[in-house]
Amino acid sequence: xxxxxxxxxxxxxxxxxxxxxxxxxxxxxxxxxxxxxxxxxxxxxxxxxxxxxxxxxxxxxxxxxxxxxxx
Length: 71
Fold this sequence. Notes:
By secondary structure, the chain is mostly helical. It is built from 3 helices and no strands.
């Protein structure tokens, strides 16, 4: 049973490594457990989503405060 779980975890880790972008890969390459790797990826991508939302809010504010020049 333990060997079977280890094989499943190794396969999952392999799929995670294959599906991740090269810019994110150095952050997860040292992990040997699929669960810890997944947790790191979840944290990284949630952070990216928050940054995107903040940038969109900034751009929306800039757009709403735009004024046409007299010329």
